[in-house]
Amino acid sequence: MIDIGYSLSRRFPDPPQTDYRTANTHALRHDLFCGDVYLADVKADRELSTAWGWVPVLDFAWALCDIVELIDRDPRGSRAARPQYAELDFTESADRLRFERRFGWVDVTADWAPDDPPLTFNHTQLRREARDFLQDLVADLSDTHDGLDANPVIWELLTRFPRL
């Protein structure tokens, strides 16, 4: 079972003058909603998490959905023996999450935990959980940030990655 989660930072609050209704893609992805994220294998009781406080949480969710689609480009899908790779880099750091898909399984490793064995997830489940995480995150953020749910960038994002 996969668990993806976040916490917003109190050390890096959004600027008080932010108009979430008109925030552009760059602001939404890189400047707002900073905190920490984690990706966990509940069954194995293991996780990869950040503890930096400055990770753009919405960008993480958005990038994770993009990556899950990127590593599914082989027309053979879960029958593909050739590995497919993708990386999620953190803008203010050299650290990255690395994704390797082979057959229907995705191994996830982190530069900041090089000695840890990879977390291994079923690709279909990872896709579903990543999209659910994005949808839930936007709902949470919309509840606490007035106007976010009226932002056209957010509408397009939620349409691009609907729940499965």
Approximately how much beta-strand content do the residues carry?
25-35%
Kindly report the average pLDDT value.
95
Rg, Å, rounded: 16 Å
Tell me the number of helical segments per DSSP (H or I, 4 or more residues long).
4
Count of discrete structural domains: 1
Q: What is the count of β-strands?
A: 8
Unreliable residue stretches: none
Which structural class matches the secondary elements? alpha+beta
Major β-sheet profile: 4 strands, antiparallel
Distance between the termini: 16 Å
Assembly of the depicted chains: single chain
Order of helices and strands: EHEEEHEEEEHH
The helix content is 25-40%
What global shape is seen?
globular
Summarize this structure as a short list of keywords or feature phrases.
alpha+beta; 4-stranded antiparallel β-sheet; 4 helices; 8 strands; 32% helix
How is this structure best described in words?
The chain is an alpha+beta fold. The chain has one domain (2-160). Helix content is 32%, strand content 27%. The chain is built from 4 helices and 8 strands, in the order E-H-E-E-E-H-E-E-E-E-H-H. The strands form 2 sheets. Strands 1, 2, 3 and 4 form a 4-stranded antiparallel β-sheet that branches. A hairpin with a 2-residue loop joins strand 6 and strand 7. It is globular. It starts with a strand and ends with a helix.
